[in-house]
Each structure stands twice: as structure tokens, then as C-alpha cells.
């Protein structure tokens, strides 16, 4: 299975250097331009399915490509942003989602680190359970880092870099292999 992990395009908070933002952060005009500029590059990967965070910045990033590729966007709350987890991993906690006014399920804005890590495990299971050979996952920086650590069963937590519209390609099989990390798909 080929997994392509894409971080959303630029938001105001990203541009201003914030590490993480709430669920309502949307793309800047430059971010909307980035979302258009990734279409051609993503077409080359011949993805068969798109999984996305429910947050507007992820959906706004992937919709132009999804329309061009004639693919549905499968939205999952487990792919939403979470908090940065440094050092020892906390104990996993029960997942709790609520129905947002957008119509999508969201994790709590005040989610504990253990619940976030439970979502990472859920996201990993969701991705590898897909019946497709080539899957694009659109999410956020902290989720991408934790997903990579989980998929690769890293013995020590690694802080993989992820710029806006940075793409990471992981081959999952008997041996999980990273083909590249944070490949720029657009200008930052």
C-alpha cells in the first residue's frame, strides 16, 4: 500500500508562526493558491482514495484536487489536528467526538494528549484498512508526525518536519518504508 500524507496549505496562524490552531482556521489567499498549485503534482500519484481531517483548512486544501481527480473526500474526525506530544507518550484515553455545526464530527477542543494518541492509533487503522493501493491522507502537522511515528513503530519519538503542502510518501507492507518526507508540493 502506498500512503501519501499531505499537510494542509497555509493559514494565517501558520503564516504567523503558531504551532497549532483551533478547528476553525481557514486558508489565507496564498493557501488557496497553494491548494490550486498542488493539483498537477498530486495527479501524478494516481491516488484512488482521499481521507481528510474535517477541519476547514484540510478540506479547503484538498477540494480542488478532489474535483479535478473526480474523487470523493472521505472525512474522518480521527485525522483532525491534536496537540504536540513531547517526551513520554501518555496513556491512551477513550475517544470522544461531537457533531460540529459543519456537519462533521470533531474531537474536543480541549482533548487530552492521551485521547489524541488514541486518535492516532485509530487513524493508522483507518488508513491501512482501506481497500485501495494508493491513498492520500490530508491532515495536520502534529497528526502527521504522530502518524509517522506510529506507522513506522519508531523506538524513539521523531519530530518529522511538515511544511504547508509538504507531502510524505510511505510504503506499507512486510517492511514499512519512507520514500520521502515533507516533499514540497507548492511554494511556501
From TrEMBL:
Entry's Gene Ontology cellular component terms: cytoplasm
GO molecular-function terms, A-Z: phosphatase activity
SUPFAM superfamilies per record: Phosphoglycerate mutase-like
Domain of life: Bacteria
UniProt-recorded name of the protein: Histidine phosphatase superfamily (Branch 1)
InterPro entries, A to Z: His_Pase_superF_clade-1, His_PPase_superfam, PGM_Phosphatase
Amino acid at each position: 500500500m502506498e500512503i501519501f500524507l499531505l499537510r494542509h496549505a497555509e493559514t494565517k496562524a501558520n503564516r504567523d508562526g503558531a504551532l497549532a490552531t483551533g478547528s476553525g482556521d481557514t486558508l489565507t489567499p496564498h493557501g488557496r493558491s497553494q491548494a490550486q498549485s498542488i493539483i498537477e503534482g498530486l495527479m501524478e500519484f494516481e491516488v484512488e482514495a482521499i481521507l481528510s481531517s474535517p477541519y476547514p483548512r484540510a478540506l479547503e486544501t484538498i477540494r480542488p484536487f478532489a474535483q479535478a481527480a473526480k474523487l470523493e473526500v472521505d472525512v474522518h474526525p480521527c485525522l483532525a489536528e491534536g496537540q504536540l506530544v513531547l517526551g513520554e507518550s501518555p496513556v491512551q484515553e477513550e475517544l470522544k467526538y461531537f457533531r460540529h455545526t459543519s456537519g462533521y464530527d470533531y474531537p474536543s477542543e480541549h482533548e487530552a494528549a492521551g485521547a489524541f494518541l488514541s486518535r492516532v492509533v485509530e487513524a493508522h487503522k483507518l488508513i491501512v484498512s482501506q481497500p485501495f493501493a494508493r491513498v492520500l491522507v490530508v491532515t495536520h502537522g502534529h497528526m502527521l508526525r504522530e502518524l509517522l511515528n506510529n506507522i513506522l513503530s519508531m523506538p524513539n519519538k521523531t519530530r518529522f518536519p511538515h511544511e504547508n503542502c509538504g507531502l510524505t510518501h510511505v510504503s506499507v507492507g512486510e517492511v514499512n518504508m519512507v520514500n520521502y518526507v515533507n516533499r514540497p508540493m507548492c511554494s511556501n
